[in-house]
């Protein structure tokens, strides 16, 4: 760690991991509710558990992105962060706002929460992933603006590298497109159309810039490959991300009332969306193969390679699987979508945050890398989480294929609930994989507390 | 990558490509907004249906159900429920929740009054008449 203020990243990463645990816990609750329908009813109905599950995911990834920016931007800019105090203040604001929102979801019926928090003033609630009450949404905007001010000032007054500019562009884009969460036309088609400007243009647009910048930063550090080479890759990857991803939004416009020509635009461009993810895999492996040094933090290298592979599989391959409109006609709104969502979010975004944490956390704790023993535990957690996520995806895919067949293709189609009963076995298997994932996550947290033998301590930073 | 393909080439493709395709996206959006009135059933978007949409949102229906295929996959598609079940069934169903059947998925009781119930049904009727390019493939959703 070269600059003292980079240390503000630490609480951000700790909060991210804590919320990650909460996310998985609620995931397990839902996994069980899929099979034992009345589990925890009416205490935690499914819709509440899902809201907590998905919102915690978003919030912990945002914590991860912000922590990553606070670490990466000063180092790239070669100066201290503009205001570490402001960064710490926003940390607490965001954490308290996030916690209050989750408490609100769990403690109060959603309709009452909407009433209390002023949804009548501006109706933004009750749309998937954007369920947050108005004060929370406003809070997110404020935190984002203060955060962007802080890192933008740092970049402006320091060295401007391609990595920091791409990171900055991604984060500004994130804040900008979030503003569409305040737009909720009563016309359902328009509502859905602009809802995707937040959701799609985040995860298949500007978030890929953030992902690319974080990955490039870690790869420069752990491989020692020339910056020019890495930044050329970065620009090539994100160019393909936006060239394919912006019009690729059209793959969400097939069946929501938008004109039929979106089936062409959406199918063609989103079919190309795997390209940037494939490039990311090639990029990660290429850089590691051409490394000029063997970094002692082998766990971080593993996470970086894993991100490339899993992002390509989850976002690229599983996305392509159901993105062509003739296929999507049958798979839209089934467990196929759930399968894709799980592996894509884990492989692209959860893993890149863990890559960053893995690389920076030892440095912030005063060593170049963790002890061998600690790294072995961390690598076990990598494999447990990653392999179990592969299985979650495979079981959900199997459930989805059967669901499509029984409910939409068979000569005598079954109803939704009859179909669900038929595919319950896959929900059991998914739940078992989820339990393994939780064990992997537990091991991941444990790895931070493994100090290892004194004699195998890796070189102090 | 070859040496003639430099970092600044890549950067220019990024900026140029992003701007070009974003403008194209805006153009398509503009055209979509102009075409929508023919497809989006907005002629039947009554005051009642608008109130119904708010009820749909403030009960977080999307947390279990899909609507035109978007939402959660825990409970049936409701974009075409008006056609599948009809208004009377929807009212009776909502009134009977939760079933309390052991081990079965449970839907909360939302205690809607008659007016709210009518608004919600009106919203589901409006939704079912949007031109979705013949999706879903059959009435089961």
TrEMBL record, chain B:
Residues 47-128 form the Cytochrome c domain. The keyword Electron transport applies. PROSITE patterns: CYTC. It comes from the Bacteria. The chain crosses the membrane at residues 12-30. The keyword Transmembrane applies. Keywords: Electron transport, Heme, Iron, Membrane, Metal-binding, Transmembrane, Transmembrane helix, Transport. This is C-type cytochrome. It comes from Undibacterium danionis.
């Amino acid at each position: 760690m070269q600059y003292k203020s980079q240390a503000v990243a630490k609480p951000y990463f700790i909060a991210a991991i804590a919320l990650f645990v909460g996310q998985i816990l609620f995931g397990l609750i839902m996994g069980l509710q899929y099979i034992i329908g009345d589990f925890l009813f009416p205490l935690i109905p499914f819709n509440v558990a899902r809201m907590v599950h998905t919102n915690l995911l978003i919030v912990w990834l945002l914590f991860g992105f912000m922590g990553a920016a606070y670490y990466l931007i000063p180092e790239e800019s070669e100066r201290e962060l503009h205001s570490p105090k402001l960064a710490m203040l926003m940390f607490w604001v965001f954490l308290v706002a996030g916690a209050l929102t989750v408490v609100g979801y769990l403690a109060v019926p959603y309709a009452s929460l909407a009433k209390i928090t002023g949804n009548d003033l501006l109706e933004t609630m009750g749309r998937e992933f954007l369920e947050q009450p108005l004060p929370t949404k406003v809070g997110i905007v404020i935190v984002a603006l203060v955060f962007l001010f802080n890192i933008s000032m740092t970049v402006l007054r320091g060295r401007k590298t391609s990595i920091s500019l791409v990171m900055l562009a991604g984060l500004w884009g994130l804040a900008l497109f979030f503003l569409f969460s305040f737009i909720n036309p009563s016309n359902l088609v328009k509502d859905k159309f602009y809802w995707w400007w937040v959701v799609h243009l985040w995860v298949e647009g500007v978030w890929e810039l953030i992902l690319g910048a974080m990955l490039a930063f870690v790869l420069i550090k752990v491989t020692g490959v020339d910056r020019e080479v890495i930044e050329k890759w970065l620009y090539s990857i994100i160019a393909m991300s936006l060239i394919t991803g912006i019009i690729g939004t059209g793959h969400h416009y097939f069946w929501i009332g938008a004109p039929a020509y979106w089936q062409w635009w959406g199918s063609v461009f989103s079919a190309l969306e795997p390209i940037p993810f494939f490039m990311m895999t090639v990029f990660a492996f290429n850089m590691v193969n051409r490394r000029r040094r063997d970094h002692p933090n082998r766990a971080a290298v593993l996470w970086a390679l894993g991100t490339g592979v899993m992002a390509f599989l989850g976002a690229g391959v599983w996305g392509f699987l159901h993105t062509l409109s003739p296929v999507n006609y049958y798979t839209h709104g089934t467990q196929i979508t759930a399968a894709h969502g799980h592996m894509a979010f884990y492989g692209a975004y959860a893993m890149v945050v863990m890559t960053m944490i893995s690389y920076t956390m030892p440095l912030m704790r005063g060593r170049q890398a963790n002890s061998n023993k600690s790294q072995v535990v961390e690598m076990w957690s990598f494999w447990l989480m990653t392999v179990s996520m592969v299985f979650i995806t495979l079981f959900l895919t199997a459930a989805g294929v059967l669901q499509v067949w029984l409910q939409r293709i068979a000569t005598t189609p079954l109803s939704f609930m009859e179909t669900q009963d038929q595919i319950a076995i896959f929900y059991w298997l998914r739940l078992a994989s989820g339990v393994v994932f939780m064990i992997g996550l537990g091991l991941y947290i444990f790895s931070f507390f493994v100090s290892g033998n004194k004699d195998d301590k890796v070189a102090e930073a | 990558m070859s040496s003639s393909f430099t970092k600044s080439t890549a950067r220019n493709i990024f900026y140029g490509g992003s701007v070009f395709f974003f403008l194209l996206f805006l153009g398509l959006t503009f055209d979509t907004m102009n075409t929508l009135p023919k497809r989006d059933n907005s002629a039947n978007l009554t005051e009642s249906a608008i109130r119904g949409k708010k009820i749909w949102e403030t009960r977080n229906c999307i947390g279990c159900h899909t609507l035109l295929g978007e939402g959660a996959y825990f409970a049936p598609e409701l974009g075409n429920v008006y056609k599948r079940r009809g208004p009377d069934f929807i009212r009776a169903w909502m009134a009977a929740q939760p079933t309390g059947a052991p081990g079965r998925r449970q839907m909360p009781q939302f205690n809607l009054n008659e007016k709210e119930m009518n608004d919600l049904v009106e919203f589901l009727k409006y939704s079912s008449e949007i031109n979705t390019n013949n999706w879903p493939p059959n009435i089961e959703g």
